[in-house]
Design a protein that fits this description.
The complex is a heterodimer of chains A (about 600) and B (about 575). By secondary structure, chain A is an alpha/beta fold. Helices cover about 65% and strands about 10% of the residues of chain A. The chains are: A alpha/beta (about 600), B alpha/beta (about 575).
């Protein structure tokens, strides 16, 4: 029940099966030829050296029994030499496995990040930020342990088992058979637990993702939480997720701990069988003491990888779930029009919305909108809250594509025009000004890195924005906290305006650009705007009228429909919706 | 003396591996007995595990002596001790998982409760992405160390001690060889630990930065797209993942060298034992059993010892993580919600000579004014004049540098924050919805979440028509940050939420900026009618929004003045009724 959101998200971002994801991961790994070659070489060397050392021990002990000093020295030297070889091969293994693991993780993260820049904007309305971050950072991290330690360990374990069984068969066929009696039991036992282990792991991944999501939400909503004095309620919500996570983990670990212990018992059976069988063979003169000792060590040796295999399985499960979640982001289809759109954008004559309808899912937010905007024309879009004004600007920004109809630039459908090129023509001032951590200069330059600070200073002067920033200790050099939390809404809006204007764009889309700025400063901005707008196309969205003097034509939206269109004076004198809206704001007594 | 201090420094270095454990114990106090059981179990498990090589040695001896019946006896013994060791190992594994999960559970709880109690100023310094990584991955890093300490480090230490004792019983010389190896191991460990410390700190910091950039990019995705800054953003992210990668590789190179030196030292000791033991056995023509046992003991500890290096890695990672978690656990920026008088404040609101400065800039200068209970007051003024700051002082999101604020004669600094904020509802400019239904979002400020009251609040906030038109009505889910709702709708949900608590003082900090003027007016009218005893302060630039105010204050450059009432004289409620009836008809 607690995972409703998680299941919804998994449905929204399809996830490959673990094994499929694993195959893809391996392909990614092998694409780094040099490192993967080195790693395999190192792992095999370690495994072979590791399997040969019980043999050299066996010969050393036999030579002690035989009283042969020279052989003892030789085999002891080989014994040490094998360890020295392992030192070097392990060193190589450590380094190349980290390089592989970290390169793969880095590339996954960068690819996921890249794709996030191109997925449809609607994506962000469906997925929680915290979960998304968790996929790219936490889930990536689960791979680190798996790729750096577990995977090489398994390859080495398998190599060890193969080499040691061959050696055992070579030296004593029947004793080897005795030693291998326990293997089927071991395999059957391991396989029988698989499904359960996987389910357990999926549960723990979901539980921790829920915690991350909840934390992220709380951190972002902290002001709201404090304003409404609900710290305790929020703690209660968090507690229940925390408890779910705890019990999910304990359940998963019960199984893997039981497994680990059972393996040890099976191992003990194996050793006992070898010793008893070996004893009988010795009696019959078929084996020697040294080989018997070596066999005991071999049995222990190949149980070591098996014990680790159980840990590996946990790690495999959690990293495959993790990697599948990252691949989910990497594979998420990009905004369809971004992919195939290649035509360069040129704006010479007009933009046209032809029969445009749009729906967020339920009702139409916009219905059959037909608007033609000539180059250089300035239009205003007004209407009540929820009339579809911002949706309209989102469509023109190409954040969304219309569900019906199309938008044309000089007669060419936006779907065919390169999004990047198109957006270079436009600069928006959006309703929710977004700020980065950094100075105000940095935040403005973000939209046009080639601009200079002097240009920004000029703009500030031109639009008399100096006043707005007057309370900042270091002026525009002031560092603003994340989301510009140290600033007032009006200041953030001013930055947002500067950010758009510094691009000197052909088309300006202003969505309630001055709603938070005081009337005095607003007037100063408006005064300078008409000059700035010369030759530019303006789309102004507002439900306030302080700026409508700037526009040539007004379009009135109501419940997704265009209900009125015309010049300011004409609309005002007719007794329509515009007149009504205007009266409320300016307190015309013959209003509602 | 100099030597002694050097020694104690060395000892301290060795024990610094356990520092994260010392931190962890604070969260395990109520589970001490489980920790004790795990430690006892790991003693038993390692002890029995080490008996295996001893019995193997005995078995070999009896084979050599041709006493085959003894072989069966020893085989059974080996089976018995291995099984016991395996079963007890279950207690160690499960117990250490339990301890580590209990630790993480308690720590997360603690972190969360500190986090929601931090002052506003804390969140201005920290970024949410980084805070998120502190409260997730950094906790996980320390949990991993606690887990491995309980399941690996403690057993390995016992293993080393018992190995020494067992070797000593076999031959003091074997033990002698072993005791040369131990200080070498410790030395390697210390050097390794020291060399990687700074790198782990950087790794954890870059990780936080990665979170931070993701957070910014995701939240600001429209802006990034709007300005075609995708490639710029990718380059920025890539430079962080690059730095993270580089640090990891440095650590890997260190680990490659030092970590693998450890088993090499053990096997050098094993070779020494083999040579010395073999030599003496040949000279003395004695049985090889004890020698086999001794070499087997070495091979048994070789793997756990190689794991020690990884534990040092975990420990450093955990230490770096814990020091980042400490930032959150530090009480300095915490608010105590319960401290103070448990009274609901009501009455006249009075500011008395309030001063507030931020980074040496005077934001509020000697402000004194009074708002009568039940009054409807407007606050206006230039952008960044300090209006929000002034309002933030009432529910004490910030405290003034000097001066007092009283409500009904009670100094707000004497009242517990929980009670104060219960009486004062503050609707901020920036609205975050929690993920859940609209109903949950409206109810979240109040324990009385009955649907009737919620509908009442929604009606006053002029959002009920919209909600009731939705297919699932009040049970409609709203996404994180309320993305499917428009700015104005979100603001109205927030107002409804504030009304539900039936506050004594309602502060609307430009809380209707995205609501159209007509609706805004209706909301004010409804509030005026339905919450007549509530003091309302609205902060706004807009003339239209001031029309309701009994009085209007203006704040400019930190100085407050009372203005003549707005152009439109506030209308009496019955006048509105008349107007409304006309409109309805």
């Amino acid at each position: 029940m607690a995972y409703e959101y998680e299941q919804e998200e998994e449905k929204f971002i399809p996830m490959q099966k673990g094994s499929r994801a694993f195959g893809r991961l391996i392909k990614d790994i092998f694409s780094m030829r040099r490192e993967s070659g080195l790693l395999i070489g190192a792992v095999l060397t370690t495994a072979i050296a590791g399997t040969l050392y019980p043999l050299s021990l066996a010969f050393a002990i036999n030579s002690v029994i035989a009283g042969n000093f020279k052989d003892l020295y030789i085999y002891a030297a080989i014994f040490l030499l094998l360890y020295v070889v392992q030192f070097f091969s392990n060193r190589e293994r450590t380094i190349s496995s980290t390089i592989l693991a970290q390169s793969v993780i880095r590339s996954l993260r960068e690819r996921a990040f890249e794709n996030l820049q191109y997925v449809p904007v609607t994506f962000f309305g469906k997925v929680k930020t915290g979960y998304l971050i968790s996929r790219i950072t936490n889930d990536g991290e689960t791979l680190s342990e798996f790729l750096t330690f577990q995977l090489p360990q398994v390859v080495s374990g398998i190599a060890t088992v193969i080499v040691s069984i061959s050696i055992m068969f070579y030296y004593d066929f029947s004793l080897t058979l005795y030693a291998l009696i326990v293997i089927p039991a071991l395999m059957g036992f391991t396989l029988s637990l698989q499904g359960k282990v996987r389910r357990n792991y999926l549960r723990t991944r979901r539980a921790i993702a829920a915690i991350t999501g909840n934390l992220s939400e709380n951190i972002n909503a902290i002001r709201t939480i404090k304003s409404f004095n609900v710290e305790k309620n929020m703690e209660g919500r968090f507690d229940s997720l925390n408890t779910t996570n705890f019990s999910a983990n304990m359940k998963a670990s019960l199984l893997s701990s039981l497994y680990g212990s059972s393996i040890r018992v099976i191992e003990a059976v194996g050793i006992a069988i070898v010793l008893i069988a070996g004893g009988f063979q010795l009696k019959a003169g078929l084996a020697n003491v040294g080989i018997l000792v070596a066999f005991v060590v071999y049995v222990q040796e190949f149980f070591e990888p098996v014990v680790q295999l159980s840990q590996l399985y946990n790690s495999y499960q959690s990293s495959m779930v993790g990697v599948a979640r990252i691949y989910g982001i990497i594979d998420f289809p990009r905004q369809s029009s971004t992919e195939k759109a290649t035509l360069p954008a040129g704006f010479n004559d007009h933009i046209e919305l032809r029969g445009v309808s749009f729906s967020y899912g339920e009702d139409d937010a916009l219905r059959n909108i037909n608007i033609k905007i000539r180059k250089g024309e300035k239009i205003g879009i007004v209407g009540h809250t929820g009339a579809g004004k911002t949706t309209l600007s989102n469509l023109i920004m190409k954040y969304y594509s219309p569900t019906e109809g199309e938008i044309l630039l000089d007669g060419q459908s936006l779907n065919n025009i390169s999004t990047g090129d198109y957006r270079k023509l436009i600069a928006p001032v959006l309703q929710e000004p977004f700020m980065y951590k950094g100075s105000i200069y940095d935040n403005v330059l973000f939209s046009n890195p080639s601009a200079t600070r002097e240009q920004i200073d000029d703009l500030v002067k031109r639009f008399s924005l100096g006043e707005v920033f007057r309370n900042l200790p270091d002026g525009l050099k002031t560092n603003i906290g994340e989301m510009g939390r140290n600033l007032s809404e009006g200041q953030r809006q001013a930055i947002s305006i500067l950010r758009a204007f510094i691009r000197d764009p052909e088309i300006l889309i202003l969505d309630e650009p001055t709603s938070q700025i005081d009337p005095h400063s607003e007037k100063l901005i408006i005064d300078s705007l008409s000059d700035f707008l010369k030759g530019k196309t303006l789309i102004l969205i507002t439900h306030r009228f302080s700026m409508v003097a700037l526009v040539d034509r007004i379009i009135v939206l109501n419940e997704g429909n265009v209900v009125e269109e015309g010049k300011f004076n004409d609309l005002l004198s007719s007794d329509g919706m515009f007149h009504h809206l205007y009266s409320i704001q300016y307190g015309n007594p013959d209003g509602p | 003396m100099a030597d002694l201090s050097g020694d104690s420094k060395g000892v301290r270095k060795v024990f610094s591996v356990f520092l994260p454990l010392a931190f962890g114990l604070r969260y395990l106090m109520d589970r001490k007995w489980i920790l004790a059981i795990v430690i006892i179990a790991s003693v038993i498990s390692t002890l029995f595990r080490l008996l295996v090589p001893i019995f193997i040695g005995d078995a070999v001896t009896s084979i050599q002596k041709l006493q085959y019946s003894d072989v069966e006896y020893y085989s059974l013994l080996i089976f018995a001790v291995s099984s016991i060791s395996g079963l007890v190992q279950f207690v160690v594994n499960y117990g250490s998982q339990y301890i580590s999960q209990a630790y993480a559970y308690n720590l997360r709880r603690d972190v969360f409760s500190h986090l929601v109690r931090k002052k506003f100023s804390f969140f201005e310094e920290q970024t949410s992405g980084d805070l998120l990584s502190r409260s997730t991955m950094d906790i996980e890093a320390s949990r991993n160390f606690i887990l491995n300490t309980a399941s690996q480090l403690i057993p390995t230490l016992f293993l080393i001690i018992f190995a020494f004792v067992f070797l000593f019983t076999i031959s003091p010389y074997f033990a002698g060889i072993f005791s040369v190896a131990v200080p070498v191991l410790i030395y390697i460990g210390i050097v390794f630990q020291r060399k990687q410390r700074t790198h782990w700190r950087r790794i954890r910091t870059y990780y936080g930065q990665m979170n931070e950039q993701l957070q910014e990019n995701i939240v600001g995705n429209r802006v990034v797209r709007g300005f075609s800054a995708e490639e710029q953003e990718m380059a920025k992210f890539s430079s962080t993942t690059g730095s993270y990668y580089d640090e990891y590789i440095i650590v890997a190179k260190l680990r490659g060298r030092y970590n693998n030196l450890m088993p090499l030292v053990v096997s050098a000791a094993a070779t020494g034992t083999l040579l010395y033991g073999g030599y003496t056995d040949i000279i003395g023509a004695s049985v090889v059993g004890p020698l086999v046992a001794a070499v087997n003991i070495f091979s048994l500890i070789s793997f756990p010892v190689s794991f020690l290096g990884r534990l040092i890695v975990f420990s450093e990672n955990a230490r770096a993580g814990i020091s980042r978690i400490q930032t959150v656990l530090d009480r300095e920026k915490d608010e105590d919600l319960e401290f103070g008088d448990q009274v609901r404040v009501r009455g006249n609101l009075e500011f008395d000579h309030i001063n507030f400065r931020r980074e040496n800039f005077e934001i509020l200068k000697d402000i004194s004014f009074e708002v009568k209970a039940g009054e409807f007051v407007g606050l206006t003024g230039r952008t960044a004049a300090g209006k929000s700051t002034l309002m933030n002082l009432i529910p004490r999101f910030y405290d003034p540098d000097s001066g007092t604020i009283t409500i009904g004669g009670t100094d707000v600094s004497k009242v517990s924050l929980a009670m104060l904020r219960n009486s004062v509802a503050f609707v901020p400019q920036e609205i975050n919805l929690i993920s859940g239904t609209i109903r949950e979002n409206i109810a979240f400020g109040s324990s009385k979440g009955e649907l009737d009251t919620i509908k009442w609040a929604a009606r006053i906030a002029r959002i009920s028509d919209f909600i009731e038109a939705l297919p699932d009505s009040y049970e409609t889910m709203v996404g994180e940050r309320g993305i499917t709702l428009s700015g104005g709708q979100r603001q109205r949900v927030a107002i409804a939420r504030a009304l539900l608590t039936k506050p004594e003082i309602l502060i609307l900090d430009d809380a209707t900026s995205s609501v159209d003027p007509e609706t805004e007016l209706e909301i004010f009218r409804e509030i005026h009618e339905n919450l007549s005893g509530t003091t309302v302060i609205t902060v706004t630039h807009r003339e239209s929004a001031l029309r309701f105010s009994d009085r209007v204050f203006s704040l400019n450059d930190g100085i407050l003045s009372e203005e003549a009432p707005a152009e439109k004289v506030p209308m009496a409620p019955d006048e509105f009724h008349a107007g409304e009836k006309e409109a309805d008809n």
